[in-house]
Each structure stands twice: as structure tokens, then as C-alpha cells.
Amino acid sequence: MNPLSHVAIIMDGNGRWGVKKRKSRNAGHKAGLHTVEKIIEACLKKDIKFLTLYAFSTENWKRPKKEINYLFKLLENFLKDEIKSLIKRKIKLKIIGKKSFSSDLNKLILKAESITKDFKKLQVNLALNYGSKNEIVDTVKKIKKKKLKINIKNISENLYTQNIPDPDILIRTGDTRRLSNFLLWQLAYTEIFFIKKLWPDFNQSDFFKIIKKYKNLKRNFGSI
């Protein structure tokens, strides 16, 4: 049975779900938040220590401004409304990506990270304004500034995900088969599961089935 400590998810299909069900992409984003809560609970049940969610990519800035504003308002409300729940369940929140948002949102992010920084039950990493290529470039610059050798060890230790193990599993919903500039360095030996369901339709049963498949895989890591 393979050990499992880190699950990463590309939460694809919110907008399509919203258009299909409610004729509104924003309705899909709101519904997707309920799925996030279900999967956080599933991780707690399975004693998974790290969950990384691709919430907003550097490329997502190309979307309509109205949709972007709605997404960040959802995030603000989540941080305001759910902080007590995170504290109660001993969940640590970490943002990976460039924190260049509104001053109000930046304050909420810093407060949530600070309040939950010592919790160890589960660490939820939200990839916001995140792009893996930018992360790697930033990492190389950081290494050069520190006058370190450019090697695998130093790159891994200076990524946004430093001190976080590489994902064991990547799940992408929405019936799209690509990585979309997400954790390109970290996913080198991750088991990838592409799911047809749109993110708001994804549930704990789907999640547990993937975990069961993963547990029974033979993982060689380049050997026989």
C-alpha cells in the first residue's frame, strides 16, 4: 500500500457547470466552494496532511474583470467566514503564488496564515496568482541571490512549496488532460488522475475511489 501525504487538485469546470446549471459562470464558482469543503473533510477523514488547490492561475487574469472580481469576493468571504472553522479543526492555511491583491485581501490572507501557522492536522495550500514557470524563475533568482549552487536540492528547497512534500496524487476534474502550468517541478513522479466530472459535481466518494486506486498502484520511480 502506497503512503499518501499530499493531494493536489486542479479544480476545473466551475464556469462550465454554472453555465449548464444556472446560466452563470459565477454560480459555478460558488458551487465549487462547497466541493472544496467536502474534500477538506475527506482529507481529514483519511489523515492526509497536505492538500493543494489550484484556485487562480497567473493566466486567469485574462478572464472578464467581472468574473475575476467575483472570484476574489468569494475568497474574501471564505477567509472571513471560515477562519473559525479552520482554527477549530487545526487546519493550516498557506497561500502559494504572488500575493499582489487588494490591500483588504492581502490583510485577510496574512491574518489567516498567521493565525493557523502552527496547526498540523492538515495544511491547505491555495495556489493564488500562481504559475509554475514563474515559480521556477523566482526560485533560480533566489538561489543566485543566496550564491548557492543551482542543483535539484537547492531548487526544491527554495520553491514556493518549500518544506512541503511533492504531491503523491494530482486530480484534475473537468475532462481536460493537461497540467496548465501547475506544480511542474513538483509533479515529476506524481500519479495523475483526470476526471470527467466538473468540479462542483466531484464528491467524497469520487475522492475515496481515487485514493483506493492510488494505494494499489505499483510505483517504480524509474526502477523496475
Overview of the molecule:
- It is a single chain.
- By secondary structure, this protein is of the alpha/beta class.
- It has a single domain (6-130, 169-176, 190-215), classed as Decaprenyl diphosphate synthase-like (Undecaprenyl pyrophosphate synthetase, 3-Layer(aba) Sandwich).
- It is built from 7 helices and 6 strands.
- It has a 6-stranded parallel sheet, with helices on both faces.
- Strand 3, helix 4 and strand 4 (122-130) form a beta-alpha-beta unit.
- Helix 1 (14-22) crosses helix 2.
- The radius of gyration is 17 Å and the shape is globular.
- The two termini are 17 Å apart.
Radius of gyration: 17 Å
Counting DSSP H or I runs of 4 or more residues, the number of helices is 7
List the quaternary state of the chains: single chain
Structural class estimated from helices and strands: alpha/beta
CATH topology: Undecaprenyl pyrophosphate synthetase
User: Which shape, going by the Cα principal axes?
Assistant: globular
Q: Which whole number gives the mean pLDDT?
A: 95
Main sheet makeup? 6 strands, parallel
Keywords:
224 residues; alpha/beta; Undecaprenyl pyrophosphate synthetase; six-stranded parallel sheet; 44% helix; globular
Question: Helices, strands, pairings?
Answer:
Elements: E1 6-10, H1 14-22, H2 25-45, E2 50-57, H3 65-88, E3 91-96, H4 103-116, E4 122-130, H5 132-145, H6 152-156, E5 169-172, E6 191-194, H7 204-215
Parallel strand pairs: 1-2, 1-5, 2-4, 3-4, 5-6
Helix pairs in contact: 1-2, 2-3, 3-4
